[in-house]
Amino acid sequence: MRVVIQENYEKMCKWAADYIAAKINAHAGDRPFVLGLPTGSSPIGVYQELVRKNRAGKITFKNVVTFNMDEYLGLPREHDQSYWYFMHDNFFNHVDIPAENINILNGMTDDPEGECARYEEKIASYGGIDLFMGGIGVDGHLAFNEPYTSLSSRTGVRALTTDTRIVNSRFFGNDPEKVPAYALSVGIGTVTDSKEVLVLINGHNKARALAATVEGGVSQKWTCSALQLHPAAIIACDEAACGELTVDTYKYFLDIEKEERL
């Protein structure tokens, strides 16, 4: 596991965007580059950096296929809190990715289990995901894989905890009851099957989750801890998120990453 510590959120986002752009630009062959993407506040700065790079001609998304992590169940794509809306508003509408290359779970499906199975099959049809970017919640959940979700889970229907609905209620008029109780989400196994995983962790409120991801034992209580078993996992974090790391761990990763490698 790599832990790349940046001074602040802006520098963390720039590092992550540079890394993603370098991977896409280095990709060769007829097969498209397959990119997994998250929603939430953490990746917004990365999306802004990638949009700038695209407009400056430093990267193209014409040969990129994307798969998003999750979507609320029962929320139409036109709803301003759907993840379909979020992704188009913050990223897809501003870059040159073909519409047919965008894959987001259908929250209005009449067959949730079938929709999830088809999603897994479509990922497999591209040969898997090359790089999955993600973020985690304060309780360490990755996508909508709440604590105690199986670390081998695949895309499926997830019940959202009260805590998650309270946290997300800031987008729903601060009313947790307006937050959907269920979502469709890729599984932990879906994410860790990716060739690379890049997880963004920023802010003081994520410090405990970062420590659990890096220093804790592998446990269903902290689904983010599954990243310890991935051969090419990267954590990009800011200084604020490092408050619960031991001094030795913090110094180790600063030392080993000091050459500013990508």
Short description:
By secondary structure, this protein is an alpha/beta fold.
Describe the structure.
This protein is α/β, with parallel strands linked by helices and 262 residues long. The protein has a single domain (2-256), classed as Rossmann fold. Helix content is 31%, strand content 17%. The model has no long low-confidence stretch (mean pLDDT 96).
Q: In the CATH hierarchy, what is the class?
A: Alpha Beta
Count helical runs. 8
The Rg value, from CA coordinates, equals 17 Å
CATH-derived architecture: 3-Layer(aba) Sandwich
Percent strand equals 15-25%
Q: Order of strands across the widest beta sheet?
A: 1-10-9-6-2-3-5
Which short descriptors sum up this protein?
262 residues; alpha/beta; Rossmann fold; seven-stranded parallel beta sheet; three-stranded antiparallel beta sheet; 8 helices; globular
Compile the SSE list and pairings.
Blueprint: E1 2-6, H1 9-26, E2 33-37, H2 44-55, E3 64-68, E4 70-72, H3 83-90, E5 102-103, H4 112-125, E6 131-135, E7 156-159, H5 162-168, E8 182-185, H6 188-192, E9 196-201, H7 207-214, E10 233-238, H8 247-256
Parallel strand pairs: 1-10, 2-3, 2-6, 3-5, 6-9, 9-10
Antiparallel strand pairs: 4-8, 7-8
